[in-house]
């Protein structure tokens, strides 16, 4: 299994506050992703990165920003948290693009915005 | 646009029954990849299988088998002789060379296996 660590694992925050979630990988994978999981929607892509400082938007990127200053770290920031961003967030990595290999997922971060 | 539909939101079976989880996909690309992931109650996502669009051979791995049919755009997953440990949410997912590396997930099927 890919070494993917998400922190924190659980967080409760207040509406309007900024929140940063961290994903750290030890596999030297080029591609990294942030997904959110909500009932009935499966997982939806928020942002992804295809290299250091190279990022792009996914399906549900509004209200989120990302940064990748090192291969191993991919940060997700909720600029001003809202209750609709209460969700479980998963980081994933891939060594090669697209379907060439499977994506490996972190353990998830449960975020509650009150 | 790509789409994955898992019409069964919840399935309940008794241990040792066979169960099939349905997955129907939509894509305009001719080269694409299909995946199944398992999410047990502990919450992590576990990779089960990857299949590319040029390989329609069915696959069997122990009690698990997958039926890929391009003619019906389906990639169904069957568990034979289900066990309580199979209880989980199962996700089907799709990506393609033109999809910008994005995995599109279905909504998931929650499987409950009762003793």
Outline:
With 114 residues, chain A is an all-beta fold. Chain A has strands at 4-7, 10-13, 19-25, 31-38, 42-51, 54-57, 64-70, 73-78, 87-94, 104-105, 109-113. At the A-B interface, strand 4, strand 5, strand 9 and strand 10 of A face strand 5, strand 6 and strand 10 of B.
What does this 3D model show about the protein?
The complex is a heterodimer of chains A (114) and B (115). Chain A is globular. Chain A is an all-beta fold and 114 residues long. In chain A, the strands form two sheets. In chain A, strands 2, 4, 5, 6, 9, 10 and 11 form a seven-stranded mixed beta sheet that branches. Helix content of chain A is 0%, strand content 57%. The model of chain A has no long low-confidence stretch (mean pLDDT 93). Chain A is built from no helices and eleven strands. In chain A, strand 7 and strand 8 form a beta hairpin. Chain B is mainly β. In chain B, the strands form three sheets. In chain B, strands 2, 5, 6, 10, 11 and 12 form a six-stranded mixed beta sheet that branches. In chain B, strands 3-9-8-7 form a four-stranded antiparallel beta sheet, with no helix packed on it. A two-stranded antiparallel ribbon of chain B has the order 1-4. In chain B, a hairpin with a 7-residue loop joins strand 10 and strand 11. Chain B is globular. The termini of chain B are far apart. The chains are: A mainly beta (114), B mainly beta (115).
């Amino acid at each position: 299994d890919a070494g993917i660590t998400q922190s924190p694992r659980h967080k409760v925050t207040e509406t309007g506050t900024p929140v940063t979630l961290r994903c750290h990988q030890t596999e030297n994978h080029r591609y990294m992703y942030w997904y959110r999981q909500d009932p009935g929607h499966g997982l939806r892509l928020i942002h992804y990165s295809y290299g250091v400082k190279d990022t792009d938007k996914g399906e549900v990127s509004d209200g989120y920003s990302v940064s990748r200053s090192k291969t191993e770290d991919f940060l997700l920031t909720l600029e001003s948290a809202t209750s609709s961003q209460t969700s479980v967030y998963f980081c994933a990595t891939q060594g090669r693009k697209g379907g060439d290999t499977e994506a490996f997922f972190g353990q998830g971060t449960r975020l509650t915005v009150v | 646009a790509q789409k994955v539909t898992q019409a069964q939101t919840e399935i309940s079976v008794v241990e040792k029954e066979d169960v099939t989880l349905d997955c129907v996909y939509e894509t305009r690309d001719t080269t694409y990849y299909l995946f199944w992931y398992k999410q047990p109650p502990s919450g992590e996502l576990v990779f089960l299988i990857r299949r590319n669009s040029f390989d329609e051979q069915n696959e069997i791995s122990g009690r698990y088998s997958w039926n890929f049919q391009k003619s019906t755009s389906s990639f169904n997953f069957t568990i034979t002789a289900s066990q309580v440990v199979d209880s989980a949410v199962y996700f089907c997912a799709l990506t393609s060379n033109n999809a910008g590396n994005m995995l599109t997930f279905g909504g998931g099927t929650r499987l409950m296996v009762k003793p």
